[in-house]
Amino acid sequence: MTLYMIGLGLNDQKDITLKGLEAVKKSKKVFLESYTSRLNCSVQELEKLYEQKIILADRELVESKADKILDSALKEDVSFLVIGDVFSATTHTDLYIRALEKGIKLEVINNASILNAIGIVGLELYKFGKTTSIVFPLDNWKPETHYNVLKENQAMDLHTLALLDIKVKEPSPEDIKKGNNNPLPERYMTVNEGIRSLLDIEEKRREGIFTLDTFCIGCARIGSKDFKIIAGTAKELLEKDFGEPLHCLIIPSKNLHDIEREMIEKWK
Amino acid sequence: MTLYMIGLGLNDQKDITLKGLEAVKKSKKVFLESYTSRLNCSVQELEKLYEQKIILADRELVESKADKILDSALKEDVSFLVIGDVFSATTHTDLYIRALEKGIKLEVINNASILNAIGIVGLELYKFGKTTSIVFPLDNWKPETHYNVLKENQAMDLHTLALLDIKVKEPSPEDIKKGNNNPLPERYMTVNEGIRSLLDIEEKRREGIFTLDTFCIGCARIGSKDFKIIAGTAKELLEKDFGEPLHCLIIPSKNLHDIEREMIEKWK
């Protein structure tokens, strides 16, 4: 039997490919990885179009109890749906390896990911350096990775894409310590919060990597018709409302090609 | 009226999304950008599924005569199809800008690109540095950009994706000089040729960036069921036959995560 790993793209139920839909329709079980990203439609809308019941796969199911998915795939066709593209998270690679090791037939059906969809801002995709994430800080954990990645990319004159944190169905650190599973409300980091995080680190380190004058591009709901892109200084973008999630933040390199500059002008 | 810019994904007619197909079906004209990439199906297969006549858009039409496409889109719904994702080439960004300037309504419908589909090799996508291309050298033009990019990425401990050259419907440099338009046969660079190009530069520069012992991953037909991935030293891969195009070459960073190493083992 086959385990279909299928990207759903970035927006809604109609972003699945024809090939993906065929695989979903012939599957006996359909799992949706539901904790690393977010669609702009409901699970019910997916179920209606797919004519299938969807099993939500949270972190625990995918990371600790993946055998539930794999054991099904030994007996019957199973679809594992991923928002964006299939290999967007290490845990999906892990699932692929486990399936290979169990001798399960695998088929990957790709789709758009934020890594290519941000091409719409007009920056050349091949001039992006390492991608980074900005996470919600905790009282005792304030990572500066994104500042360091930006610094490295700037040194090489490359664009930086910063993905912004998502907290879905996660308990508080206190509850995790106590072993309680009381999920907190969903949280999605905004462009504004991402910018503030970089400014906070700048204030501490003062290396001139990201200041109120740094030119950046705030993006929301890329891949949907309702996307929003605004280019401007960090100070200007701090005052903008980007609306519903997901957001991401781009810091372009200093030297832009003419066509890059021309396109970015459109988002000011 | 609307100009739909639609990614077709990487393999065949069934990789279009439901949203993409809806837009194609309601368009009065359908253009396919036909010179920067390649599908593993014929134009006739696209036409049959789409129930539309497809106009092949070569470099001249897209770059010099884009007004033909734009003027249509002022009067009627037009689809502009791109293999992979929409903003894979500067020229597509240019078309988007010209359409905006003419007041044409635009809708972008994303799809998979090689930039995310290579996630299947098991390397983390966010650890890739700048993407590079390896081009067919000419007698008087032997660029070393890909060697330089690899060197920079190595210095930052990042993976490198090298896309391999495609020559479709291009006349020879001599014919271009003479103004003749006699297209040469199609050529697609192989993994073997890409490796040889890097070795040739290494032989000249001797900086130890890419030798016969360099570990790399050769890929062919990523995004199709018939993909081929082989990991090994440059020397080992030189002897492998990767079959039909498109090929690409990945040079992983020296330091791999456990899960990256575990997955790459599967391709040896």
Main attributes of the structure:
268 residues, 35% helix, alpha/beta, homodimer, globular, 11 helices, Cobalt-precorrin-4 Transmethylase, domain 1, Methyltransferase, Cobalt-precorrin-4 Transmethylase, Domain 2, five-stranded mixed sheet, five-stranded parallel sheet
Would you kindly provide a written description of the structure presented here, covering whatever features stand out?
The structure is a homodimer. By secondary structure, chain A is α/β, with parallel strands linked by helices. Chain A has two domains: about 1-110, Cobalt-precorrin-4 Transmethylase, domain 1 (3-Layer(aba) Sandwich); about 115-265, Tetrapyrrole methylase, C-terminal domain (Methyltransferase, Cobalt-precorrin-4 Transmethylase, Domain 2, 2-Layer Sandwich). The first copy, chain A, has eleven helices and twelve strands. A five-stranded parallel β-sheet of chain A has the order 3-2-4-1-5, with helices on both faces. In chain A, strand 6 (about 130-135), helix 7 (about 145-155) and strand 7 form a beta-alpha-beta unit. The longest helix of chain A has 15 residues, at about 190-205. The radius of gyration of chain A is 20 Å and the shape is globular. The model of chain A has no long low-confidence stretch (mean pLDDT about 95). Chains A and B meet through helix 1, helix 5, helix 6 and helix 11 of A and helix 1, helix 5, helix 6 and helix 11 of B.
